[in-house]
Specification:
It is built from 40 helices and eight strands. The chain has about 850 residues and is mostly helical. Helix 6 runs parallel beside helix 7, helix 15 crosses helix 17 and helix 19 runs antiparallel to helix 20.
Length: about 850
C-alpha cells in the first residue's frame, strides 16, 4: 500500500504525456485500466493526481473541431422543467410578516451567492406550509423549474442522505444514470455545475442538520434555496450567510382565524369557545387542523363542550409537560382526537405505529391489525377524516412524522410486547406471501426456484403479470424497509426469504440500488442464522447486481463465494446457477475458454437435475459466446436448442435473449427477414415480462437492422429508445451499445461529427467497463467515421487498435472488420499493396464465418486487379 501514491503519480504523468502527444484514446485506456485495478484489487478510488489527469482529458477542447473527445457530459434538458413543489396548503391564514421576508428573498437579485432562507421552529408550527405558500406565489420567477425533497431529518429510520437527494435532483434536471457520479463530493460538484446559471428554486424540507443540507446548495446566485428544520442550522447562517426565520406559534388572532376558516359559520356563533380552542391547541397549525376536523365530525356538539373535554384531557397529561414544550399542544390534541375515534379505528391507529415503511395500503393495515380488509379500509378512512393519516396516492396512506411518532408511542403503551411481535410477524408474513404471488405471476417459470411461503389471511387481488408487477412497483420501498427492519430486529428468516423471492424482479427491472440494500441485509441475516445456503443466495444476487453494473471483478468475487457456499450446503441447483453466471462474466471479459468451461459444467449440472429452464439459459450464454467468436453455425444450434428448452419449461419470457442473438446473427448473414422476425418476437417477450435490459438490448439490434434496410429514421428512433432505457437502468453496457449503433446511423446519413461523438462516447463507456468486444467495435466504427471525415491518420490508429484487441481476444468478426477498415485507410492513402493485404485478410475472415461482406471485399480486390480474385 505504501507504494500506491507513487504508482498513481507515475500513471498520471503517463496519461498527460499521451494527451500531449495527441494519443487521447491511449490516455483514456490507461486511466480506466488503472482505475479498475484500484477498485478491484484495493477497493479504492483514484487519487487527486489521477482524477486531475482524467478531468483534463475530459475537458480538452483542442482547435480542430468537436471530435476532440468526450467532454464532461452536459445535462439534457428534461421534457419540461421540473415542477416538484407539493400542492399549496388550503386555508392558509396569517404569517404576513414572515411571507414578506420570504418574498424579499425570492424576488431579490444581484447577490454574489445563492440566497438561502432557513425557516426554523418546533414540529407542527407550519414551516412547510409557509414555505410552500411563498414558493407557489413566486414560482413563475424560476423558469428552469423547482426542486423539492423531504429530507425526513427527524425520522429515525428513513432520513434521506444528501447523496440520494442529489441523485433525485440530477435526474430531474435531465441527467442519465451514467452521468451521475457515485462519489458524494463529485456528485455535489456535478449538481452545482448543472445548476450554474439556471434560475431554479430548491426547497429542502425537514432537514436535520447543516451537514445534510450543504451538499444540496447550488453555487450560482440565480438559484434560491428554502430550507425548513426544527434545528436552528446555525452553521448555514454563519458559513453560507443564510437568512434565518424563526417561526413561532401563530398569533392568537391568526389561530382563531384559521379555526374559523376550517370550521365555517358555526364558529362565528361561539367566538369565546373558538378562542379557547385555539389556546388549547397551543396555537400550532397542525393541532388546530386536527381539532377543527374533530369539531366538524361532531356538528351537533357545542364547541364549548369540546373545549371543556379537551381541557380535562390535558390535565391528565400534565406529567408529560417538559418545561412548557409547545409540542405538548400537539400531543394533547392528538390524544384528544384519538379518544374520540371509533374503537376499531383507534386500535388500528396504534398498530400503524409498528409499520417500518413510509406508507401502506388497506391490505398491509389489515395484516398489522389482524382484521379483514374491509374493516381496515373503513378504519383508514376514519383516520383520514380525522387528519390522523393522509392520502398518499390511490388507496394508500401516510402519516406526518409527528403522527407517526404518536402512533409508535401508542403502540408501545397500548399493546403488549407479544401483541407487537405478533403484529409485525403478520405484516412481514403478508409482504412475503404477496411478493411471492406477484413473482409467480411475473415470472411463472421460476416458481419452483423461489422459497415456499405460507398463504396469509390477507392477500391483495392480483390476476395477471401486469397486476403482479404493479404491486411490486408500488410496494418496492416498503420491501426495502421491511428487509432492513427484519434483519436488524429478530426476523432474519423473513429478510432472507424476501431477498430470495424478489431478486429477479429487482434485477430485470433495473432497481439495483434497492437490490443491493435488500440482498446485503439478507446476507447479514443469513450469517446471523448460520445458514450457508441463505448466504449463498444473497451473495449470488449481489453478484448479479455487480454484473449489471459492469463491475465484473466484484461480480466474480461474489459469485465465487456463493459457489463455495452452495457446494458446502450441498445445493446442486445453486451450484449450477453460479457456474452459469461465472461463465457469463468471463464472457463479458472476452475470456472465452474459461467462459465455455464454466458454462459446460453448468449445463451438465442442469441436465442431471432435469432443469430445462436452467439448461436453456446456459445454452443462450453459449450461443452468445460462439457469436462473439464468429462460430455462427454453432451459435445458431445452441440458440435454437435454448428456445426449445424454454418452450418445454413453459418460460416464453426467457426466449427474448436467444431470439435477440439469433436476430443479430441473421442480420450479419444478410438474412434480414429472419432477423426481423426473431427481433420483433424477442422485443414482445421482453416487454411482456418487463425485462427492461432485454428490451433495451433488442431495440439497439432493431436499430441496426433498420439501418441495414435503409430505414434511417426508424433506426435512429430505435437507438434513441435503447439509449433511454440504458440510462434509466444505469446500464452502462446497454448505453454503450446504443451509442455505438447510433453512431453508425449518423455515419450512414452523412452526419459525421455526430457519428464521431457517438462512437467516442461509446468507446469511453466500453473502456470504463473493460469490455473488449465493445472496445474493438467502437474503435472500428470510429475509424470508419474519421476516415469518412478525411482524417486518415487517426482513422488508421483506431483500426490498428481494434485489430490488436480483436486478435488478442480471438474475435473473428472483429478481426475481419478491423482488417477491412485498415484496407480502406490504405486505399484512401494510395497505398494499394497494404490495402490488398488487409482486404485479403478480411476476405479470409468473412468467408470463414460465411458473411456476405466477403462479396464486397472480393469486388474491391477485383478492382485492384488482385490475381487470385481475378482468376477465381
Amino acid at each position: 500500500m505504501a507504494a500506491q501514491p507513487l504508482d498513481e503519480t507515475v500513471h498520471a504523468l503517463l496519461i498527460r504525456a499521451y494527451q500531449q502527444a495527441g494519443r487521447r484514446d491511449e490516455a483514456f485506456a490507461l486511466y480506466h485500466a488503472v482505475r479498475r485495478r484500484l477498485a478491484d484489487e484495493l477497493g479504492i478510488d483514484p487519487g487527486a493526481e489521477l482524477s486531475a489527469a482524467h478531468t483534463a482529458l475530459l475537458h480538452e477542447r483542442p482547435a480542430g473541431g468537436r471530435d476532440a473527445g468526450p467532454a464532461a457530459p452536459a445535462s439534457r434538458p428534461p421534457a419540461q422543467p421540473p415542477a416538484q413543489l407539493p400542492a399549496d396548503v388550503r386555508s392558509f391564514v396569517g404569517r404576513e410578516p414572515e411571507l414578506a421576508t420570504l418574498d424579499s428573498l425570492l424576488t431579490g437579485a444581484g447577490a454574489a451567492a445563492p440566497p438561502i432562507g432557513v425557516v426554523t421552529g418546533p414540529a407542527g408550527v407550519g414551516k412547510t406550509a409557509l414555505v410552500l405558500r411563498a414558493a407557489h406565489r413566486w414560482r413563475d420567477r424560476f423558469p428552469d423549474g423547482q426542486l423539492y425533497v423531504n429530507l425526513r431529518g427527524y425520522d429515525p429510520d428513513q432520513p434521506v442522505p444528501a447523496v440520494d437527494a442529489l441523485d433525485r435532483f440530477l435526474r430531474a434536471v435531465g441527467l442519465g444514470s451514467d452521468e451521475i457520479p457515485a462519489d458524494p463530493d463529485e456528485r455535489a460538484a456535478r449538481y452545482r455545475t448543472v445548476l450554474d446559471g439556471r434560475r431554479m428554486l430548491v426547497v429542502l424540507d425537514n432537514a436535520a442538520s447543516a451537514e445534510q443540507v450543504r451538499p444540496l446548495l447550488p453555487g450560482t446566485p440565480s438559484c434560491v434555496v428554502l430550507v425548513t428544520s426544527r434545528d436552528s442550522l446555525s452553521g448555514l447562517v454563519a458559513q453560507q450567510d443564510a437568512r434565518r426565520l424563526e417561526l413561532s406559534l401563530l398569533p392568537a388572532g391568526d389561530a382563531v382565524s384559521l379555526l374559523r376558516a376550517l370550521i365555517g359559520p358555526r364558529a362565528d356563533a361561539e367566538p369565546a369557545a373558538v378562542a379557547a380552542l385555539a389556546s388549547r391547541c397551543a396555537r400550532l397549525p397542525l393541532a388546530l387542523r386536527v381539532a377543527a376536523e374533530l369539531a366538524n365530525r361532531r356538528p351537533d356538539a357545542d364547541l364549548s363542550a369540546l373545549v371543556a373535554e379537551l381541557g380535562d384531557h390535558r390535565q391528565r397529561l400534565h406529567l408529560l409537560d417538559a418545561g412548557g414544550d409547545p409540542r405538548l399542544g400537539v400531543r394533547a390534541v392528538l390524544s384528544w382526537s384519538y379518544r374520540h375515534l371509533p374503537p376499531a379505528a383507534a386500535q388500528l391507529f396504534g398498530f400503524l405505529g409498528l409499520h417500518p415503511g413510509a406508507d401502506l395500503d388497506p391490505y398491509a393495515a389489515a395484516a398489522l391489525a389482524g382484521t379483514g380488509v374491509p374493516e381496515a379500509r373503513h378504519g383508514l378512512a376514519a383516520l383520514a377524516a380525522a387528519h390522523l393519516v393522509q392520502p398518499a396516492g390511490a388507496g394508500r396512506y401516510a402519516m406526518h412524522d409527528l403522527l407517526a411518532a404518536f402512533a409508535a408511542e401508542l403502540a408501545g403503551t397500548e399493546l403488549t410486547e407479544p401483541d407487537r411481535q405478533a403484529a409485525r410477524t403478520r405484516l412481514f408474513d403478508y409482504y412475503l406471501y404477496a411478493a411471492a404471488v406477484a413473482m409467480d405471476l411475473a415470472h411463472p417459470a421460476e416458481r419452483h426456484l423461489r422459497p415456499a411461503t405460507e398463504a396469509t389471511p390477507v392477500a391483495p387481488p392480483m390476476a395477471d403479470r401486469a397486476a403482479g408487477l404493479a404491486w411490486l412497483d408500488s410496494e418496492r420501498a416498503n420491501l426495502v424497509a421491511v428487509a432492513a427492519f427484519a434483519a436488524g430486529h429478530g426476523w432474519s428468516r423473513h429478510a432472507v426469504i424476501l431477498s430470495a423471492t424478489v431478486w429477479r424482479y429487482l434485477e430485470s427491472g433495473g432497481h439495483l440500488t434497492d437490490a443491493t440494500i435488500i440482498h446485503t441485509h439478507a446476507l447479514t441475516a443469513g450469517g446471523a442464522l448460520g445458514d450457508p445456503a441463505a448466504q449463498a443466495d444473497a451473495l449470488a444476487s449481489l453478484g448479479i447486481v455487480y454484473h449489471r453494473q459492469g463491475r465484473y471483478q466484484r461480480s466474480l468475487a461474489q459469485l465465487e463465494q456463493a459457489l463455495d457456499h452452495y457446494r458446502r450446503a450441498g445445493h446442486r441447483l445453486g451450484e449450477a446457477r453460479m457456474l452459469s453466471n461465472i461463465g457469463a462474466v468471463h464472457a463479458e471479459l472476452a475470456r472465452w475458454q474459461p467462459a465455455v468451461e464454466f458454462l459446460a459444467q453448468a449445463r451438465d449440472r442442469y441436465q442431471r437435475l432435469g432443469s430445462a429452464l436452467g439448461e436453456g439459459r446456459v445454452l443462450t450464454k453459449l450461443g452468445a459466446v460462439y457469436e462473439q467468436t464468429g462460430d455462427y453455425r454453432r451459435a445458431i444450434e445452441q440458440l435454437r436448442e435454448a428456445i426449445d428448452c424454454f418452450q418445454r419449461a413453459g418460460a416464453p419470457e426467457d426466449e427474448a435473449a436467444p431470439r435477440h442473438t439469433l436476430g443479430s446473427i441473421y442480420r450479419a448473414l444478410g438474412q434480414l427477414e429472419q432477423a426481423g422476425e426473431q427481433l420483433r418476437t424477442a422485443l414482445a417477450h421482453a416487454d411482456q415480462s418487463a425485462d427492461r435490459y432485454a428490451s433495451g438490448q433488442t431495440l439497439t439490434e432493431l436499430g441496426l437492422l433498420c439501418l441495414s434496410e435503409g430505414r434511417y429514421e426508424l433506426a435512429a428512433d430505435h437507438c434513441r429508445r435503447a439509449l433511454a432505457v440504458g440510462r434509466e437502468l444505469a446500464d452502462l453496457l446497454g448505453q454503450a451499445r446504443a451509442l455505438d449503433a447510433a453512431g453508425e446511423v449518423h455515419q450512414r446519413r452523412g452526419e459525421l461529427p455526430e457519428a464521431i461523438d457517438q462512437h467516442r462516447a461509446a468507446l469511453e463507456l466500453f473502456q470504463r467497463l473493460g469490455h473488449v468486444p465493445g472496445q474493438a467495435s467502437a474503435h472500428t466504427n470510429l475509424g470508419r467515421a474519421l476516415l469518412a471525415a478525411g482524417r486518415v491518420e487517426p482513422a488508421q490508429a483506431h483500426h490498428a487498435t481494434a485489430l490488436a484487441l480483436a486478435t488478442d481476444a480471438d474475435l473473428r468478426l472483429g478481426t475481419a472488420a478491423a482488417h477491412a477498415g485498415l484496407a480502406e485507410v490504405h486505399a484512401a492513402a494510395g497505398e494499394y499493396d497494404q490495402a490488398r493485404h488487409h482486404w485479403n485478410q478480411a476476405l479470409a475472415g468473412y468467408s470463414a464465418i460465411g458473411l456476405p461482406a466477403a462479396d464486397q471485399i472480393r469486388q474491391r480486390l477485383y478492382w485492384l486487379g488482385d490475381p487470385a480474385v481475378a482468376t477465381s
